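The passage that follows is intended for readers who have already worked through the single-chain material. We present the inputs for a multi-component assembly, then the predicted structure in tokenized form, and finally a short commentary. You are encouraged to pause after the input and sketch how you expect the pieces to fit together before reading on.
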Amino acid sequence: MASKNPRKQKNVSDTARFGLFLTLPAQVMLFFIVVFPMLAAIYLSLSTWSPLTSEGTFWYQAYKYWGWLSNYWGLVRQKDYLLALARTFIIVLVVVPVEFFIGLGLAFLFLEKFPGKKVFHSIILMPMMIVPAVAGFIFYMIFQSAGPLNAVLSRVLFRDVTLTWLTGKVSALICIMIADIWEWTPLMFLILLSGLMALPEDQINAAVILGANRWQRFKMVIFPLMKPVIVIALIIRGMEAVKIFDPIWLMTAGGPGTSTESISVYMYKHGFKYLNWSWVAAAGILVLILMSVISMFALKPLKEKKQEA
Amino acid sequence: MEQKLFVKILKFILVIVVTVLFLFPIYWMVTMAFKPYTEWTAAGGKIFWYPTKPTLDNFRSIFSKQLKMNPIAGTAIRPVVNSLIVAVVGTAIAMIAGVLAAYGISRYKRGGNLPFSLLQLRMFPPIAIIIPIMIMWAFLRMIDTWFGLVVIYGVVTLPFATWLMKTFFDDIPHELDEAAIVDGCSNAGAFVKVVLPLAKGGIASTALFVFILNWSDFLVALVLTDRRWTTIPVHISKLQSALVGQLYGPKAALGVIAAIPPIVFGILIQKYLVRGLTFGAIKK
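Having made your guess, compare it with the prediction:
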């Protein structure tokens, strides 16, 4: 019996070959740019080789400086590394929910009609188009002691405010979070608004007719229907926020001291300032392991959504 | 009714306030780009909310080679050209591999774990594997070259290109290309002659979207380029002068230039932004 799929009726081996050919470039790229470097990173991470201390040996001769798990053992006991990890997750855990709630509030505001809605909509989308490094530079300017923020505060408080926001350990971290929130709330807004607009109106109207108040409507009707969209919005933002580097590098470069180093900033500094390559390779592998574990849970809803589609 | 109108106005005011807050940083950069040196900061005791003597000096100082005394004269020309080249070629690479892979995944269910590994790739901080890539590149003499950069761009944005293109291919009814195959078209023929023309709009949108991502990169260019192939964001981060300290004006001018293509393209493909950034999980 002939298969229903005409692709298979055709020439089976031709079809198989064509299918393989289609994904080949992507597979090859992934192999050379991801798999091979990862293997090299694992190899390096098990040595103590670094371009500075290893007297003219090449990276592939790292076996001469074999150290087994000494880098890993050093990393899990190093305060800077653990703090950078913790700080990254704190940033994600603060920034993503804040972006979510502001985005959700805005999305509800934009469900109603008001004059100039399209213009406001376009303006609110602009921050996410700004190159993140440039956004970092903008907020660097804003938080200077002679910058606009202090000028506004001076006017409101009727006295000269000359705070140096980016030199305080905690305030610098908050400034970085503000920059991220500014840049990425629009994305949350956009995702949630498109989710809200896709809601079936009759169900909400039915709830209104049944006498549900606003909160009940949200809890019983809107939220359950919106759940997949909300989950995806949170995962996507969380995924990208973990990698935060550009605004930090432009605003504080990880400083003062190491107090605003995210995991990416930590690795960049140790790799390219201190040239401690095997150490960073190990740090990277640990992060990859951690992210793989997280991604197994985090990407599940995305995968399910794909299979439905 | 009165009450309702009052609430409506209140909400409208809230929208205005939030919009102003979102707009202000951009406003500050754009105005800064046109401010003369004396108006950059409030260090002189007065803050300038807008340029009182607007000038093009900031642009001139980084683009004109005529200003001999200026150490940063003309330094921004190369980065702007570089950014354009690497973003365009990087996009082309991601698109070629992405369009093919997306079609393979959409129609032939090929690629095994490829879709998932592409998603996973997005979760990994690129810095985690950039050291071995740098070693590889140094070995192949690809550091500080355009081709060294674009290959990485192609891979970094491949997940977006693939997933977004897959949604566009999924939107095209299977019956169309299957009919072509039944009519004697080869597999490749059906793809090139039937599906690709239908997916033109999707391909254009995806390419613009990927371009925005490549154009916005900072970290990869920071690591893999040195002097000749620095891109705009890297140049902004390195631009400084011993004479005047922080070069707010010229940096802002460069920032404005960096902001233009993504904003223009972003507005063009507004419809697909959500789809793109959520890997097609949310279709509007």
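Commentary: The mean pLDDT of chain A is 85. Chain A is about 70% helix and 0% strand. How closely did your sketch match?
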